[in-house]
Amino acid sequence: MAVSPLSGRASATSDAFQQLQSQQARRTADQAEQAAQELRRRAAGAQRVADQANENARSLQVQSDQADGAAEVARRGLAGQEVFSRTADHLAGVYDRVVEATRDSAGASTVVVTTGSASTPGTLVDTTA
Fold first, then answer.
1. Beta bridge partner(s), residue 124
2. Which residues contact 128 (CB under 8 A, 6 or more apart)?
3. What is the pLDDT of residues 68-105, one digit of tens each?
4. At 3, phi and psi to the nearest 5?
5. Separation CA 14–CA 20 (nearest Å)
6. What is the pLDDT of residues 36-77, one digit of tens each?
7. Residues 11, 17, 22, 27, Cα dihedral to 10°
8. Three-class SS state of 111
9. CA 108 – CA 115 distance, rounded (Å)
10. CA 65 distance to own-chain centroid
11. What is the pTM (predicted TM-score) of this model?
12. Could you tell me how far CA 24 lies from the centroid of its own chain?
């Protein structure tokens, strides 16, 4: 069977076309692989940034909790100071009343009653008999 020159050319053209399609498919696959590698690289970088942001957020949360604790300690300290100040003022007032009562009695032996039913609290009771 004889091959006509036309059919030989068609076959050669067909082979060349298939080879060209294969090369183009390889180029397309290579470009897609390069794009995928670039996207993986960018995704890894974004993941590192996200991991660092999460670590920073955890660190800030710990610092916030510590600041809350410090604020609570400060509030308790302030409350303690206020109680101490009121107690000191009250004791100073009691001391002043005792000093005044002692001065007023001019040396007489007196007792300051602060509780009990013998008399009203704070009343001077003369014990010289």
1. 112
2. 108, 109
3. 999 999 999 999 999 999 999 999 999 999 888 888 77
4. -100, 130
5. 10
6. 999 999 999 999 999 999 999 999 999 999 999 999 999 999
7. 160
8. strand
9. 21
10. 5
11. 0.48
12. 56
